[in-house]
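User: When convenient, might I ask for sequence and structure tokens for a protein?

AI:
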Amino acid sequence: MREIYQKIPELIESDQVGAYCTVVETKGSTPQKPGAKLLILPDLRNIGTLGGGCVEAEARRQAIGLMQDGHPRLLEFQLDSDYGWDDGLICGGNMKIFIDLPRTRAEADMFTRMQELNAKKIPLICATVVKNDEHNTNVGKKMVFATNGDKIGTLGNSDLETEVETQMSDILQKNRAGVFQQNDTTAIFLEPLQPRPTLLIAGAGHVGQALCHLGSWLDFDIVIVDDRADFASAVRLPEADEIIIGDIAEELRKYPINHLTYVVIVTRGHQHDESALHSVVESNARYIGLIGSRRKIKLIFDDLLEVGVPIEKLKRVYAPIGLDINSKTVPEIAVSIASQLIQVRNGVDVEDTLDAQPSKMPTIKLSEMGDNS
């Protein structure tokens, strides 16, 4: 998504038009959900996806036809035998895809400002008129509502703008994109854009390096901490947004961890892992994960209980880290950790899963923790 938002202003500034396609509504079984995006560039290359298959191919065909002198359009697809999967399987759902054609300087400024707000970790909602049957003049108009009070753009109707603004808190809380239907003739696509979370990786070894690559691909801001300059380098970690070289525990204590921070502890040894966990365990990080065997984790937890870390704080730690996929290699370990990060970020109820729970003292029974438990 970040790549798409960066590219649209570049196209406008160079007097080029791309087709900005967004899934705005789905019913039943569909290959993608509202918010999925595809940007078709002037040379017909793609950024993003609408789910592939026949639906994307048809949406792409129509979008390309609009790129010269067309107008924004809402497409609807019934996923029957005409628009099933390429292998013949039929989803059986319904998808609405909005084809937008950003051209104006105001739109370029809006997408640029959205990136700036996102970089400042400010939640916002992007509202787009996708249906306006009465006059069709407002279709494609957009407005951004940010929690810091910023409002950018217009929907062409002040009453509608006020109505959207009053629902802003609820939309951000639910964190689901969808269509708001004001009446039979007007529909607005409302997309909450939460700030990008930060993946704070303690340890720039092999697992940290692999996770840096995966985390960037999965739309995290990447910060990596290590005390070894030869490991924590831009050459080894080109996807990192920030590299911090220094004592790991001390740098973690200084880092401004908040509810948007996901901490992964994958240092080179037991003592570094323990001191790193001690530095962050009482923070309000959204996620804290610790690599290691159950025996090692128990020893670390015993030590932290002994120095006064509350047991409730240790229960929040995902340890052993990652989903249990029987991973053995470094890339597999990184995938298992990344999968758990996605699970937490997407709000999956980990209590209902078998192999991806917070430690509750890892999978170690509390009775094993000794007198301090």
User: Anything to note?
Assistant: The chain has eleven helices and 15 strands. The radius of gyration is 23 Å. The first helix runs from residue 2 to 13.
